Amino acid sequence: MKARVKVFLFTEYLMCLLLALYLGINFSNNFNLENFLFMILILFIINNVSLFFNSITNIVTSIVLPVLLPAMVLLDPFWVAIIAGIGTIEIKYRDNSFIWYKFVFNRTMLFLAGGLAALVFNLCNNLMDLNFMFLPLLIASLIYFFINHFLLYTVLRFSENERSLYFIEISKNLISSYFLGLVLYYSYSFFGKVFFILMIVLIYVIKDFLYSSLRQLNSYTQIVESFLKVIDSKDNYTEGHCKRVSIYTHILCQEMKLRKTLLERIVNIAKIHDIGKIYVDDQILKSSDNLSIEEYEKMKKHSVYGYEILKDIDIMKEDVDIILNHHERYDGGGYPYGNSGDDIPLGARVLSICDAFDVMTTGRSYKPSMNKEEVIEELRKCAGGQFDPDITEVMIKLINKDVFDDSFKEIEENNNYQLSLNYS
Questions:
Q1: DSSP secondary-structure letter at 286?
Q2: Please, are residues 144 and 48 in contact by the beta-carbon 8 Å criterion?
Q3: Lowest CB count within 10 Å: 17, 386, 392, 396, which one?
Q4: 234-423: which CATH number, 3.10.20.310, 3.30.70.380, 3.40.1710.10, 1.10.3210.10?
Q5: What's the rounded Cα separation, in Å, for the pair 417 and 293?
Q6: Across the chain, which distance is largest between two alpha carbons, in Å?
Q7: Nearest to 47, CA basis, from 75, 106, 87
Q8: Model pLDDT for residues 152-181, shown as the tens digit of each residue
């Protein structure tokens, strides 16, 4: 252990001893054995439960501060400090090694943080004389947060294990811990210990639900990225086309004020909407001429191919109809089944117009790109036929608001480049 670490630890231990003497003499009269034992036991149990689940999921969560906040209201600062120091003792699940100075450091660090936060709460509550304790508890939360993590950050820095973003990373938990503390305090005050315990169980249920949702979302994203690589390996243009269409889809869905979860699902499908083209012959896919009737019929099957690829993936099966229907027309003249109107999923109707918009603005070797006025004219002509008229109006509104100007600038730059080649 380095000399500066030893000095720091000695200083912390001395401060802890002085604080214990001060609190013991001045702030230890309000003692309720039942509340004290309940809080210290609850903190010990849930802290170790959190550690157990953290070791399984590798998701770090802590509920120490939410339990300490109601303890600050019910008990004097001296007893809160003891609850913080003793109630957070950890039972090691994977690492059985015991390092005494780390154990003492953690106990004194939490004693200092809990004790000083409780002292500040006590002083603020007396000075403000408020019926509601929102502000004193918030100030106490900030004090606990600062002392706890400042001491931890300092010892890490002195040990040359500094993490430069440490405070930024942990600050995300402060607000949630504060509000959970308020919920637990009012649960305990108005409904008693049983409801208090039920609220803690509910918190863990919600946490586990959010964790499983995060994992599912991460899996969804990984699948989409993997398929994007497959598309790219097949055809670079198709991969770039899918990315552009997903950007347009995101903008259009936002303007339509779709709920966030639906928006994300549509955008993720837009990123891989042409995945079925991996089954289309390269000769057809990369043809620079108009396709023959036979070739076009083969190309039209890519939406069915995409549906077949994705339909058995559980987390995507609710959205694969978007891929299947993204070439259907609002008037029923599209493919593969001739669906029309509201029988076409909303995501497919959004994707259809964004898909066409990219074709209009990038063009093909056999079909030049269009400028802004030409695109708007084409969209109006196709409203109610190829496209959903309501969605078309939203798209035109976005174009008129210059939201897609970057796409049109690229057209102008490409056209100017072609002209310069012709005149050189």
A1: T
A2: no
A3: 17
A4: 1.10.3210.10
A5: 34
A6: 94
A7: 87
A8: 888 877 776 544 444 444 555 677 778 888
